[in-house]
Design a protein that fits this description.
It is a single chain. The chain is α/β, with parallel strands linked by helices. The protein has 2 domains: 1-81 and 166-252, Rossmann fold (3-Layer(aba) Sandwich), CATH 3.40.50; 89-164, no CATH class. The model has no long low-confidence stretch (mean pLDDT 90). The longest helix is centred in the C-terminal third of the chain and has 14 residues, at 179-192. The protein contains 10 helices and 10 strands. The chain binds adenosine-5'-diphosphate and magnesium ion. The site of adenosine-5'-diphosphate (ADP) has 11 residues, from strand 2 and helix 1.
Length: 252
């Protein structure tokens, strides 16, 4: 048995009495690639905030590899092996792609050591491997400012992977990307899924179809249903909660 990488038990997060998460029960296996969808305001971002310690559950608990994360600060949760990618890329625009990855590989060292000392040969090999994984070898020595939005997203995913997390949390990675860039990010996540557990939040249904195995639908802070993309798309409850959503985020 592979075991669970992440579980939430009866997690409620209240903001002044409003329950952004409401008795949320969720679990995913080690090695799974899970996609979480849901209409705006369903609680998707709050769900990630509750996992990473950015907000504390009012009730219930979050378990990472069986360990209760209650009251742990964000940086400690991150050190335990949970890496989070926010929606907008947070790369250093005036550093090159390679320097960004160097920095991410050596977060524990200080910035000056990373920039002015020669990286060790194992760090260099690791950066070369990451450049290949994210498909940015030819742009390795370009300042990150010259990358397209999709390339920046891939660079930031590479920077996240550089810290060797066991669980990657990725919030809406393809918002605002072209179709081609969307497919590139999808292929990258599929490749990373071979060696990581990944939880992706996404609105773009074309992208969800490209990468999803099991999909969880959130609605009003709880799990509405789970299944394959075909199962959830045909579920009348899902169709109902998506009615009234803007056209581009609606289920077809
Ligand atoms: P999603 O990411 O699915 O669109 P969110 O998790 O961002 O949804 O928000 C869920 C609900 O909780 C929304 O109604 C939002 O307005 C509310 N909410 C989120 N964060 C806060 C906060 N810090 N204070 C008050 N309400 C919040
Ligand atoms: Mg959100």
């Amino acid at each position: 048995m592979k075991g669970k990488i992440l579980e939430t038990e009866h997690v409620t997060v209240s903001f002044d009495g409003f329950k952004a998460l409401n008795d949320l029960n969720f679990s995913m296996d080690v090695g799974e690639l899970r996609v979480v969808i849901g209409p705006n305001g369903a609680g998707k971002t709050t769900f990630l905030d509750a996992i990473t310690g950015k907000v504390q559950p009012t009730q219930g608990r979050v378990l990472f590899k069986g360990r209760n994360l209650r009251r742990l600060p964000e940086d400690e949760i991150s050190r335990l092996g949970i890496g989070r990618k926010f929606q907008t890329p947070r790369v250093y625009l005036n550093l090159t792609v390679r320097e960004n990855l160097d920095l991410a590989c050596t977060r524990h060292k200080n910035v000056f050591a990373t920039l002015f000392e020669r990286p060790s040969s194992s760090d260099r090999r690791r950066v070369v491997g990451l450049l290949e994984t994210v498909g940015l070898e030819v742009k390795a020595d370009f300042p990150a400012a010259l990358l397209s939005h999709g390339e920046k997203q891939r660079l930031e995913i590479g920077m996240l992977v550089a810290q060797s997390p066991d669980l990657l949390l990725i919030d809406e990675p393809v918002a605002g990307l072209t179709d081609e860039e969307t497919e590139n990010v999808g292929n990258l996540l599929l490749a990373l899924a071979e060696s990581h557990s990944i939880l992706v939040i996404e609105h773009d249904m074309e992208f969800v179809r490209q990468i999803a195995r099991k999909v969880t639908v959130l609605h009003e802070g709880s799990v509405l249903c789970e299944g394959t993309i075909e199962e959830v798309q045909n579920d009348p409850r899902v169709i109902e909660v998506y009615l009234g959503e803007p056209l581009e985020t609606s289920l077809p």
